[in-house]
Amino acid sequence: MSTNNFTQEELTSFKESFDTFDKNGDGAISASELKSLLRIVGEKFHAKHISETMQLYDTNKDNQIDFEEFLVLVNKIVKNKAPISP
Ligand SMILES: [Ca+2]
Ligand SMILES: [Ca+2]
């Protein structure tokens, strides 16, 4: 896909992070899973911001962040130099 230029190593590491945040293992990050993700990366999000973030990154509007959508979010976090590891 064209929304990122991550290396294979980065993608592998992001996939591991994704799997960590996808606690119920359904291959997508829900709002509550996103909440713990944002807490870990140090974002002080309120519930309102969670839904705004969901709307911003959930580009196919299925109320879940899949891995491709997650990469867009990660790309933003990386650019802001915030940590992504749990
Ligand atoms: Ca999930
Ligand atoms: Ca989605």
TrEMBL record:
<dbReference type="GO" id="GO:0005509">
    <property type="term" value="F:calcium ion binding"/>
</dbReference>
<keyword id="KW-0106">Calcium</keyword>
<dbReference type="Pfam" id="PF13499">
    <property type="entry name" value="EF-hand_7"/>
</dbReference>
<feature type="domain" description="EF-hand">
    <location>
        <begin position="45"/>
        <end position="80"/>
    </location>
</feature>
<dbReference type="GO" id="GO:0016460">
    <property type="term" value="C:myosin II complex"/>
</dbReference>
<keyword id="KW-0677">Repeat</keyword>
<dbReference type="InterPro" id="IPR050230">
    <property type="entry name" value="CALM/Myosin/TropC-like"/>
</dbReference>
<feature type="domain" description="EF-hand">
    <location>
        <begin position="9"/>
        <end position="44"/>
    </location>
</feature>
<protein>
    <submittedName>
        <fullName>Phospholipid scramblase 1</fullName>
    </submittedName>
</protein>
<dbReference type="InterPro" id="IPR011992">
    <property type="entry name" value="EF-hand-dom_pair"/>
</dbReference>
<dbReference type="InterPro" id="IPR002048">
    <property type="entry name" value="EF_hand_dom"/>
</dbReference>
<dbReference type="InterPro" id="IPR018247">
    <property type="entry name" value="EF_Hand_1_Ca_BS"/>
</dbReference>
